[in-house]
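Render this sequence as a predicted structure.
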Amino acid sequence: MAVFPLPTPFLSLAEAYLLESISIDDYRRIALEITPCEIRTHCQNPALSEIIAQTFSFPAAFYRVVRNSRTLAIFWIHQAGKVHVSLPHLSYHSIQIDQAFQHEQAAIYYFIIKSFSQSEIRTFKAYTPGQYNEKVSSWLLLPESGETLLGQFSNSMRRKIRKTSQQIIELKKGDHTKSPEEQENLLQDFHWVYRKRLKQLGSPHLGIHFFRRLLKDYRPGEATVWVLYHLDKPVGAAFNLGFDEFLENGWFATLPTHQHLFPAYSLHWHMIQDAIQSGYRIYSFGRSTRESGVHQFKRQWKTTDVALVWNYSNDLQSSRKSIPDLRTWWKRSPSFITRWLGPPIAARLY
């Protein structure tokens, strides 16, 4: 995957760039003026800068890359301790490179990565020797109708999708159109399923205040929480972020005790249909470890693998990705301890 070092012409281009500080309003204005050379994801929604800064105390700074007073790219980056990250707790970066400079894309990314003494920039390609590339995102190009997509699936897939509709199951969606009380009730049920499942897997959970802020302040764009109930008990849950033509299911969990009902198939299918009706072009199943069981599950939906590469300005890839023996300890610890410790630990495992 790696292509190093960069060709000399690219390095020469990078040497001609300048980094200028801008405001969040400048970012919003310039974003309307340029045509980005890559699809806009939810990570280009500047509302996230304030949500992440307020939730995790990772201050954000906005910049533009210029040459001869012309803007080539815009981005923001968060300072997490000594490291500058774009973007923590999410799979992609905030960088928008003008399509007019697409041929300079590698040089611009390299310049941004090297502009900070310690940086982590999450891209789709490798631009530096120091990198982490074990994750992949699964994207589904949405057709005009759900029936068209359903016809592309195997008989087994269609059977699993339809089985849930035959059970005593209720699906609820929450967004800014719902009352604050409805949103909060769904959010509590989502977080209960999410927290319970992550404990079973041995991973700390993000605090509910992060998701509460997303529901309240993610504008423009769409933040939605989904909860699947069986006999009035939450058995599956998801949290999605949409922006422009892109919708990602960023957080997802179902309870193993109800796998015979195929809740994961039901949740994704209904969210995909909702995405089609809302006019999105891409539905992302989010990131997973390459060739893992979760990755194989996502492939059933006729997705395209999108490589995820965390590029570092120096060799940082061994830090923050895991804590030795945490997984085993987390599974065995009482829930009242993990519920309390989860958010502060997860906040630093971005």
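Summary. The longest strand covers residues 70-80. The radius of gyration is 21 Å.
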